[in-house]
Specification:
Elements (H helix, E strand, L loop, with lengths): L28 E4 L11 H10 L6 E5 L5 H10 L2 E4 L2 H9 L19 E5 L10 H11 L6 E3 L12 H10 L5 H11 L26 H5 L1 E7 L12 H8 L4 E4 L4 H6 L20 H16 L3 H22 L2 H21 L6 H9 L2
Parallel strand pairs: 1-2, 2-3, 4-5, 4-6, 6-7
Helix pairs in contact: 4-6, 4-10, 5-6, 12-13
Amino acid sequence: MPYGSTRPENIEPLMEYRLGFWPGNRGPLFLFYDQEPILGEFNFELLDYVCNNYMQGQDFILVTTEKNSETLDLVRTRYKCSVVYYFHHVFATHDWFRGIQFDARLIAPNQRKLKKKYITFNRLTSNLRVYRSLFISELIRRNILDQGYVSYSDVCPDNEQHYTKNLADAVDKKLINEAVAAEAIANINQAALPLRIDYSEQQFIPNSSFVLSAVKESQESFIYVVTETCYWERKCHLTEKIFKPIVSRMPFILVGPAHNLAYLRSYGFRTFDKWINESYDTIEDPIARMSMIGDVLSDLCTLSLYELECMLTEMQEVLDHNYNLFYSQSFIDRCWRELTLGLADVCKQSPVVPGLQEAIYQNLGY
């Protein structure tokens, strides 16, 4: 605590860990690091602290919200731990976005009157999230910045550094080369910064992960460009951000790691390849993927608002499907089952408290 914390001092034990699962027995130690992505060496301080202060001969089981992750391989090698995946943000967003159906600002897709062609929120732009600056650069380079509602601050509220410094840091970290950084800086320098959709009276855009921001503006926009928490890495990782257009019944473009549209579809959600080119999701080179995303959005911006309103009407079935699936009990049950079966499988492979695996299966109704 609080939500999204990454520091050792913010660990919140949910029970007296020495008791394990049953009084008098020493069970495995479960670390639910499930609110933020695993970033390799960045997490070593936290995990070293856990090992040195909590583990007393117990098995170490890391529960996380990403899979097919190269960074998790580093953690497995360093700590010899087991890893369990589950889609944490499904449960978080079901809590945060409950009652959305009663929000009178939300309009049926076939009844919307559009004013902008896209909307995109870009609050944090430091460290690994400088790809959001590259995205803003793409909008400016293609002369489509004014066709959308766009948030972007010249100073990131995370580290209070100017975008020029954050892009320079990205060069030092070998995320991008000097030419890419120079082009992005030259492009962004042309914009009247900061860019705000809402919260214009505040110095920094506040963290509003747990609410739908700028609902009126979203409903006036054709497509929601989701700049996710992760981008550079090879991993399956999505957060509450991808569910904001889904509960708003909007089409979306995903600025995230390669193959994450496919990851989302694996849960039964439908995307929009009937109307837009989604091959960007298969491009593993991050700079080439960003350029392709720019191409897709630029193509949409050549259409009139009336043409986009007609396209929204065509998309209604897909938008309703995604909305209904997100709020369905079957989706929640599937994600809960994924977690509990993952825990049961790990317990089966490790020496644990007698009866723990059976208790998990009993909870599932087996």
